[in-house]
């Protein structure tokens, strides 16, 4: 099992990123909560990882904090919740907000996440209640450096990232239209769109 990667951030295009570790490029999938804390491309980064082995692929997932990885690992143990939905949950709500949703049995907030229907949300509330103790830990940490814009069109990158998280193209267009014109970075566009979807 690969526990973590430390190397140079070679590329980032939500929800994928590449870390160059000693000349080997590792492709990872990561939630938006991790992307918000990534430094600029070319900067050193450390990510906690989780490897999922399937018949047709080995997929490495990256996380900015141990709490994110722990929640991801607990989520994929829930029936009907695979890595894709777990990433969508981490992209749509923070670890602390997820705790609050479970404690207050807030099914309505959970069903706003793409791929999470009412039955899955209710199952999450029931099954995750007992697992929250496992997730208790230090407050979320962040990676060094500030989010940076990318040379490609932030609008198109945000659109692609939101569609890959499970939102329908028409809905993504509507969400991005609600974002203030002053918002120009990909990460901020996605953050504002996800807030609008949760509102």
How does this structure look, described?
Strands 3-2-1-4-5 form a five-stranded antiparallel beta sheet. It folds into three domains: 4-63, Nucleic acid-binding proteins (OB fold (Dihydrolipoamide Acetyltransferase, E2P), Beta Barrel); 66-135, Orthogonal Bundle (DNA polymerase, domain 1), CATH 1.10.150; 154-198, Ubiquitin-associated (UBA) domain (Helicase, Ruva Protein, domain 3). Residues 136-151 have low confidence and may be disordered. It is of the alpha+beta class. The protein starts with a strand and ends with a helix. Helix 2 packs across helix 3 (83-92) and helix 8 crosses helix 10. The chain is globular. It contains ten helices and five strands; from the N terminus they run E-E-E-H-E-E-H-H-H-H-H-H-H-H-H.
Short description:
The protein is of the alpha+beta class and 199 residues long.
Helix/strand order, N-terminal first: EEEHEEHHHHHHHHH
Number of helices: 10
Count the strands? 5
Broad structural category: alpha+beta
CATH fold field value of the largest domain: DNA polymerase, domain 1
Helix content: 40-55%
Architecture blueprint of SSEs:
Layout: E1 4-13, E2 16-21, E3 24-29, H1 32-35, E4 44-53, E5 58-63, H2 66-75, H3 83-92, H4 95-103, H5 107-110, H6 118-129, H7 132-135, H8 154-164, H9 169-177, H10 186-198
Antiparallel strand pairs: 1-2, 1-4, 2-3, 4-5
Helix pairs in contact: 2-3, 8-9, 8-10
């Amino acid at each position: 099992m690969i526990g973590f990667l430390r190397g140079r951030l070679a590329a980032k295009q939500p929800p994928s990123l590449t870390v160059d570790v000693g000349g080997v490029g590792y492709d990872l999938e990561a939630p938006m909560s991790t992307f918000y804390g990534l430094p600029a491309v070319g900067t050193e980064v450390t990510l906690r990882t989780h490897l999922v082995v399937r018949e047709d692929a080995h997929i490495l997932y990256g996380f900015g904090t141990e709490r994110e990885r722990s929640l991801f690992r607990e989520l994929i143990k829930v029936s009907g919740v695979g890595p894709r939905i777990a990433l969508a949950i981490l992209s749509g709500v923070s670890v602390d907000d997820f705790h609050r949703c479970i404690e207050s049995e807030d099914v309505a907030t959970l069903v706003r996440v793409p791929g999470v229907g009412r039955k899955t949300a209710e199952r999450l509330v029931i099954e995750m209640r007992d697992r929250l103790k496992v997730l208790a830990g230090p407050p979320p940490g962040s990676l060094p450096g500030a989010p940076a814009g990318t040379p490609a069109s932030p609008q198109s990158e945000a659109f692609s990232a939101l569609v890959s998280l499970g939102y329908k193209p028409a809905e993504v267009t509507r969400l991005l239209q609600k974002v203030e014109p002053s918002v120009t970075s990909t990460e901020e566009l996605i953050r504002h769109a996800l807030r609008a979807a949760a509102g």
